[in-house]
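Instructor's aside before we start: the two examples that follow are unrelated to each other. I chose them only because their records fit on one page, so don't look for a connection. First example below.
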Amino acid sequence: MLRSLHVEHYVLIDSLEIRFPEGFIVLTGQTGAGKSILLGALSLLMGAKADAGMISDGADSCVVEGEFDGRGDAALEAAVKAEDLDWADGQLLIRRVVSRSGRSRAFLNDEPVSLPVLTALSARLVDIHSQHQTLLLTDRKTQLSMLDFFAGDAETLAAYRQCWRALQERRAELNRVREEAARLREEQDFLRSRYETLSAAKLREGELAELEAEQQLLANAEQIKESLCRAESLFTPVEEDRASLSATLKDIVAQLEKAGRYIPSLLPLAERTASARLELDDIADELSAVNARTDVSTDRLTQVEDRIGTLYELMRRFSAAGEAELIAERDRLAGLLEGCETASDRQAALEKEVAALEKELAKQGSALSKAREGAAKPFAAEVKSLLKGLELDKAAFLVEIAPAAPGPDGADAVTFRFSATGTAPVELARCASGGELSRIMLCLKALMARYTKMPTLLFDEIDTGVSGSVADKMGAMLSRMGGDMQVFAITHLPQVAVRGSAHYLVEKAVAASGAAVTSIHPLDADARIRETARLLSGAAITPAALANAKALLSEAQSR
């Protein structure tokens, strides 16, 4: 429950510090006094959108702070601790600060929290019923949500929604894979043809350079052969009357050694000549081997030139600068072709997953429908029973469930049907007046609060469109609800106001600076009589109005 509210520099509220008791709390005041401003401040604390327009003129920021008592609420305690926040034995201090830039910060027991966390936690503390929510009662999604609250199928609905989200994700992925697989299939023949062309070429990096070198050799083979033969013949003449170069050098060595007996300086020359002869013999052997390997083959030249032509054609066709790029393109095409197979396999796997999820969704949807169907009649009976207490004795209220296309909330279409006279109930939006909608909404809120164990409810003119004895009975229902939880009601009806266990007045005054300022304060017994008299008679409070107010309050309190 809400223990206290502290507000600073919020719209027309300069500074406000107010404590609240348990039970049924009434808030009244002149039209335009600022009751909606107070409601807005509390909504901000519950996670509503913040903007700089909320800050009072001349202030740099506004602050809204609420102290809540959450003791005994195991679900709330678990939610707070799940966010690794201080439970503080259930004493929860929630604060929201809005800066002039429009940015806001939220805190729970002085620990920063994100706005989604604040919204989720505060939803377990306070339910604010604004005036437009009565109109939402005619919305089928709202009706479905109310039936689910009564049915207590939150876990079943959560399981269904989880399955629904998983199914939508898999369907989206399947569509992407199908499109990719279709695109690849269209290109597959073209890709395979290009891959096979490159694969058949048996590419090898560095081959082109080797082939071009060999082509140069083969293209000049005759001239090379002629030069090699001439050089070899100089080492070893074919004429019988000419000695070979090696034999000549050997003879020179012998002559130098012979002369060296007498001229010792010739001996080193003999050794050098001998070394030269050995080196030249090695050169002659290598030259002979090269000459033997050098083949004047026009067939090989044709083969080499054809291969070079093939490589250049592939480079032109595939816009490649060399064998390395051709090999990279071949490997890329291989990957794409493999991707065709992978996409097909992935598509088949996803189709199985989607089929399994559709089956699971149908199962979850069936369980959800069963829970709703089981709750429909008891729910309608409870609403009808509560409506009888609000002077709709003959009213008929039915909950109609029809099959619908599966969606995020199930495969059911829920429609509330109503008839004030009890005959031929029709869709709620087509038959209920404003006063009837207010009474139906109050009954539904009473049921929801009972089944959700909401600690605090705030009604903003839930009694719109009713008066007289109906207003008195609505006040009595709100009072009874206040016996189980904390209930706030902003009202203009004296029949509702006198039922409150506490009464607060919202007033607007003009400060010394000339600015309008809103304040709120509790009323004592005498002030409450005067405020009730104002509600009864208007601005002019007559003795008769005071007497009537006193009697009305006395009767309400005695009941």
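Example two begins here.
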Amino acid sequence: MQDFGLISFFLWLLTIELLSFAVLPYLAWMAPNAPDRGYGFSKVCGVFAFSGICWLLTLAGLATDGNGIIYLTFVLLLIAGYRGYRPGLLSRADFTALLDKHGRAVEGVFLGLTLFYGIIRFLNPQIFWGEKPMDSTFLNFFVRNNELPPQDPWASGSPMSYYYLGIYFIAALLKLTGIPAAIGYNLAIATLGGLIGASFYGLLLLVTRNKRFSAWTAVLLVIACDPEVLRLIVFDRDPRWSWRITFDGFWASSRVFTPPGFLEYTSWSLLFADLHAHVIAIPFTATVLGLAALLFLDGKSRYSLHGFALRALLGAMLGSLFGMNTWDFITFGAAVGALLATARVPLFWQPPTYEDGTPSLGETIFVTAFSRAVAFVWDAVIVAAFAGLAVYLYNLGVSFRPNGSWGWVYDQEFNTFWKFFRVFGYWVIGTLAALGVIAFAPSSSKRRVSVWSCLFAGLLSAAVIIPPALSALKGIGHQPWGTVVYAATVVGLSYIVLWARHSSDEKKLVWIFLSVTATLVVVLEIFFLLDRMNTLFKGYMAIWMMSGLSTVVAVFYANQMLREAGREKARRALSMLVSLGVGMILVGTAFNVYAVVTIDRGLKRTYTFDGMEWMKWKREYTEDGEIASWFNENVDGIATILEAQGDGYREFTRIAMHTGLPTVLGWEHHVRQRGLSSEEIPARKRAIYAIYTSEDIDLTKKYLAMYGVDFVVVGNVEKTTYRPLAASKFENHPEVFTKVATLGDSVIYRTYLSKFNPAYKSALQQ
């Protein structure tokens, strides 16, 4: 499949590029004042438009007969895109000029990062270990599935209680292109890096207006590691990773926080290659920030038709985060809300002035309050309406039943500032250095800071301290005061130097990012939602992104101000600090890449995009690979299979993993997290055990009917797990079990009550 894998790679990229250029004229119409007319965001928006429409049509029951509706959607989008290249949207001359000006930057970032992570996946393509079995199961399932709402493929017949929308989006692209899921899994991981980078470019260009800086910094943010990587290798005395570059060190670098907390930041997640919901959501969260920044900076277009369309798109994509990774809906929803509340608002009329030229204070306050209130209601209603519609549509037939609660974090789970620094150290140093330079560097655009501004900054800082203070009043000790003081300092100081002293809306935007990030840090440390692990893990993903973005932009402004002031010595010192930090990031990332690429979990290293290729060379998995291939070649659509069930992170659910066919029960912890009841899990385990071990054919038929089992797999894992295996039952009751394939020592049986009619090949082994 190696040649087909390379062809698939180019086909995959071509598809995303076509979708990108199909939506570009409409984005350009929505964002007339963006430097790149929304070009950087078009990659993600193209995928969102195509896959989102496919999802809506499937939800409406129009995709049950195969992939025809998907092909039709693609064609219609391309036609709409072609017709969009005209005056009033984006003329062909403007499109050519846009390509000349930004094409190399946008495509260079997108294709460069996709190629970078694509090479890594090509060198280590195995879909194995971690939670890849779950992610691969979901991907294969949605490639097969044409009906919504979906069932949980690890609990057949049970409705899926999980945010599946992101994996559906990728599956829709695989259906369109015909690329097998085993290859598409790795292509998706690679492409996510490019999509994130392209969106970062659009956002950075919006606030800096510097193409070169935006392009290189977008790449840096996508590949950046945390300081812990170098600390483990250079300073830690643990012989497992000190002075070594190992996978164990790579793993440990993401496990800094007090258990059960951890952070699998962007580049770590892309290297580890679990196709998790939170990873798929990253480019969409970056685009949500970009669209919200467009709204924040462009107040003149608010009440126009294209201004309405921009807010509708922002709301729809924000609402889709609820179905991709609900934590991002919460954290980035907070960021969008802050931007809506502080967006640029032109006054409806200019207040009168007195004879000496001073404005009328009372009418100034009135017109400002009135204009801002109307603008906020307009923005909030449109964004909330489309976000609410997206959430409503996703919830049709999907019922979240996650186990957990919410409440206060106690002292044994707090993270010290040192732990926070080991993860966010590059952003901490960069932020404080940049704010210090901006505070003291002379600038013609600076304004005098009033006493009221200082008091307001103090109130903002005090507000950040309120959550840990309330925690202390409840008798909880050892609050992370170091982290709290840092966050409060960033909020207050950045308000003075970026908002109060400058009239630039771009600098105000950076203050919003810094303040939202700092506030989230404190809130996530003091409170938990559902459970502590997911609160930190998912919440800190947003903090990592916004911290990185706001830090690099603050450094850019600091360097710009030093250049304008002619302070070359200070500028060189800042450049040396930045160069040192970038160098450390690149060295750490190189260590991480080496650790991931050199790990080998198979008997033979394979160089391919096919995530199943390794199974041909690992003896104990060879037959499992053949079983999965048999199902993929002979069974179209959804059928329920029975295979061995056992502990998570082991060999169980290996057939569902590579086929997407629902199995009676997958990893217990994960289905419990997704809301399968505590009574249902042991009941399913008993049923599986009875089918494999009991000689009672009536009991067996009862359980087969209860869970609608179409096929039973009897392979080496089943023989090892269930002893004694009732092998004679399967052979002696042809009226219940029909042998459809024998693959080495493994056998596949079709049950008597299966309504599924696969298109058998003539050479099937009987």
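Confidence is low (pLDDT under 50) at residues 757-766.
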